[in-house]
Amino acid sequence: MRNIVLIGFMGCGKTTMGIKLSYKLHRIMEDTDKWIERNEGCTIREIFATKGEEAFRRIETACIKKMAEDPTVRIISTGGGLPVREENWGPLKKLGHVVYLKISPGEAYDRLKEDTERPLLQCEDPYGRICELLDKREPLYEACADTVILVDGKTVEEVLDEMLTILKEKDVI
Ligand code: S3P
């Protein structure tokens, strides 16, 4: 049995799908952002504001490395920027089966336009920022993924069913 690791851009539904999978498969769920907030004793927004993005990325790398050493089999939901650092690919792969929830910039914007928690999107032109980040990250997400699932226009239940079917076909669950 291996971990199922969810990666993808902000708003693609990693946390929601992680919770659903956790109920369905009776496995514990862990979320890298929640792990970091617990460990640091403050929110991601506060870490960005007080220590900066680079410091957050270092903490994120420490987090995924630590998770990769833990033998517990879980569902792991990751922060949207985690696959950007190549240093994180080894731990991601070591953890288990990596599922990329792929979202388009338009759908990500629709889902995140009212959001105030994601520091990277608190800017003049959040749509432009989403396009720019996705452009850079898309090939990295693809390179890390064992399975890719498109989420645009699908309900949570539809994505869950599709994921369960694929994971069964691939003998992951
Ligand atoms: C980030 C995504 C966020 C969080 C942080 C940075 C990113 O997680 O880790 O705000 O760089 O894409 P979600 O993808 O869960 O929103």
Please describe what this structure looks like:
This protein is an alpha/beta fold and 173 residues long. It has one domain (3-168): P-loop containing nucleotide triphosphate hydrolases (Rossmann fold), CATH 3.40.50. Helices cover 54% and strands 14% of the residues. It is built from 8 helices and 5 strands. The chain has a 5-stranded parallel beta sheet with strand order 2-3-1-4-5, with helices on both faces. Helix 1 (14-25) packs across helix 8, helix 2 crosses helix 4 (53-69) and helix 4 (53-69) runs parallel beside helix 5. The longest helix is centred in the C-terminal third of the chain and has 19 residues, at 126-144. It starts with a strand and ends with a helix. The model has no long low-confidence stretch (mean pLDDT 97). Shikimate-3-phosphate binds at residues 10, 14, 33, 44, 79-81, 118-120. Shikimate-3-phosphate binds next to loops.
